[in-house]
Specification:
Strand content: 35-45%
Number of helices: 1
Structural class: mainly beta
Order of helices and strands: EEHEEEEEEEE
Shape: extended
Distance between the termini: 29 Å
Helix content: under 10%
């Protein structure tokens, strides 16, 4: 079943996405990029916090995301779901932190030979017309390479803690507001670690991203 999101409203305090600033970027064509030599990659530390401190604990300034009508909500309204002026899926008591530690970006090339999982149709439009100049086979094309440091032992490449205390359906044009919290719930979610509180993920290998 396909449920396109009509509207998404954050009733939350977002502490920020932190990254190194990028200044003076210019668009380069593939041919120009192929001639660039001697350039090093970029390493990023990214942190995204919602209603939380650096340890992933709920902030006191938002009532610790506890109690009826607290402001820690994420509300979604889906297309064609307009009963009583609107139906909202509201995720409540929501807080957490997501960190990417030393994410490395570099340039690379896709393999020269297609793998057994190649699917040229993913590069076709709805009418079946190829959107690439080389018969929908991007072999040996330039790509973005994403990796984490591959060092011995366990590395906390990704750290993630997320709490959704309650989830409920609320109605009305402003059903997303904390003031309309009906106290109901049919679902809760917690991502973390019983020892370190924040779940830690070690990723080896890399991902190549190709686009046009």
């Amino acid at each position: 079943m396909r449920c396109p999101v009509k509207r998404l409203i954050f009733g939350a305090t977002v502490s920020g996405m932190l990254a190194s600033p990028v200044v003076g970027m210019e668009k380069l064509e593939d041919a120009q990029m192929a001639n660039v030599t001697g350039q090093e990659g970029v390493a990023l530390d990214l942190e995204f916090r919602v209603n939380a401190d650096s340890d992933g604990n709920a902030l006191a300034s938002v009532d610790n995301c506890q109690g009826l009508a607290n402001p820690c909500n994420l509300a979604l309204q889906f297309a064609n779901r307009d009963a009583a002026g609107g139906e909202w899926l509201v995720l409540k008591d929501m807080y957490g932190v997501l960190r990417f530690n030393d994410l490395q970006l570099d340039g690379s090339r896709l393999p020269a030979v297609s793998s057994a999982f190649a699917n040229p149709s993913r590069f076709e439009d709805q009418s079946g017309n190829c959107l690439l100049p080389n018969d929908c086979t991007p072999n040996d094309s330039l790509a973005l390479l994403l990796t984490f440091p591959d060092t011995p032992g366990f590395n906390a490449d990704i750290e993630w803690r997320l709490n959704i205390g309650r989830a409920a359906v609320q109605f009305g044009p402003e059903g997303f507001l904390p003031a309309n919290d009906n106290g109901g719930s049919f679902l809760g979610l917690a991502i973390g670690d019983t020892v370190t509180d924040i779940a830690r993920i070690d990723i080896d290998g890399g991902v190549q991203l190709y686009g046009f």
